[in-house]
Amino acid sequence: xxxxxxxxxxxxxxxxxxxxxxxxxxxxxxxxxxxxxxxxxxxxxxxxxxxxxxxxxxxxxxxx
Length: 64
Description:
Elements: E1 4-10, E2 13-26, E3 30-35, E4 41-44, E5 47-52, E6 57-61
Parallel strand pairs: 1-6
Antiparallel strand pairs: 1-2, 2-3, 3-4, 5-6
């Protein structure tokens, strides 16, 4: 199973917002991320900036 870490980029900095993400869903409100043993988290107005499969990270941004 391939699980990813999700980062949120803002002002040139990256903040880890969830480890071991098993599901990522784009919704009308933003991006819903889910891990196996945590409550799902909605990152409002977010978009996917980078998916680094080899590095195991997904970088989101929510600045317009």
